[in-house]
Write a structure and sequence with these properties.
There is one protein chain. The protein has 2 domains: about 5-140, Sandwich (Jelly Rolls), CATH 2.60.120; about 145-245, Arc Repressor Mutant, subunit A. About 35% of the residues are buried. A hairpin with a 2-residue loop joins strand 4 (about 30-45) and strand 5 (about 50). The chain is α+β, with helices and mostly antiparallel strands. The N and C termini lie far apart (about 45 Å). Strands 1, 2, 3, 4, 5, 6, 7, 8, 9 and 10 form a 10-stranded mixed β-sheet that branches. It has 8 helices and 10 strands. The longest helix has 18 residues, at about 190-210. The chain has helices at about 100-110, 120-130, 145-160, 165-175, 175-190, 190-210, 215-220, 225-235; strands at about 5, 15, 20-30, 30-45, 50, 55-60, 65-80, 95, 135, 140. The protein is globular and about 65 Å long.
Length: about 250
């Protein structure tokens, strides 16, 4: 069994990660805000995974065992907060919206030296104020605990474009669609269509960070057309998929 690394203090810093690079499972005694200034970041825990492009940050509560994965050239910004200081009042990992002001505050806070100056304290205070006002985003892809759901979800993770019905997938894992539908709600807190859409959006963010053309992303993630994909993406993230690519590559 792999040993979980323990880092008592969550660092506040900027870190560069190459495409595909990972930070193995570890935990901090402090809370941490994880933000990708460039590229796309995924954070995995035993409860599931979270994906954050440049308009989102991930709140990782103190004590949470988590691992990072880079998609595209990743510029990782880490903000550590003492366990006693929880401006969000959250005890589970959560994706947060990052507007232009909060983005600049995170960049300035993680790039500047922690010199204990009054200017540094004011910057940190404004950052915390902006965090409190940041809306939470439903971008969590929960991990199943029921064996039949684990088998079904593994099939779709291997091929997000698999468009079989729940009944057809149920025949492969040995359960009825009614049973599986009930277990999706009880075990994962969402319906099967909701989970599959979340999976496809997570996969899409990864492909876009790797500069895959939007039309190809739509096909690989199971949308019937690029326009259908762009519509779902815009409604979820507030902008088009091309925003997340290293360069303009929408065809």
């Amino acid at each position: 069994m792999t040993e979980i690394r323990h880092e008592p203090v969550a660092p506040t810093r900027t870190q560069q990660l190459a495409p595909g690079a990972a930070i193995d499972a570890h935990r901090h005694d402090d809370h941490q805000i994880v933000y990708a200034g460039r590229g796309v970041l995924s954070v995995a825990t035993s409860a599931g995974s979270w994906v954050a492009p440049g308009t989102r940050a991930i709140w990782v509560p103190a004590g949470t065992v988590h691992a990072h994965q880079a998609h595209g050239e990743l510029e990782l910004h880490l903000v550590g907060l003492p366990k006693s200081e929880n401006p969000l009042g959250l005890d589970t990992p959560t994706v947060l919206a990052v507007g232009p002001l909060l983005r600049e505050l995170i960049l300035a806070h993680t790039r500047g030296p922690d010199d204990g100056s009054p200017e540094r304290a004011r910057l940190r205070a404004v950052l915390l104020d902006q965090l409190r006002a940041s809306p939470q985003q439903p971008l969590h892809l929960p991990a199943p605990t029921v064996p039949q759901l684990q088998a079904l979800c593994a099939i779709l993770r291997a091929d997000p474009a698999d468009d079989r019905t729940l009944a057809a997938l149920g025949r492969e894992v040995g359960a009825s669609d009614r049973t599986l539908s009930r277990r999706f709600r009880s075990d994962l807190g969402m319906t099967f269509p909701q989970w599959r859409t979340q999976l496809r959006l997570h996969h899409a963010l990864v492909l876009l960070a790797e500069n895959t053309p939007v039309t190809t992303v739509a096909h690989l993630c199971g949308w019937s057309s690029a326009s259908a994909f762009i519509d779902v993406f815009r409604r979820t993230f507030g902008h088009t998929p091309g925003t997340h690519q290293p360069r303009d590559h929408t065809r």
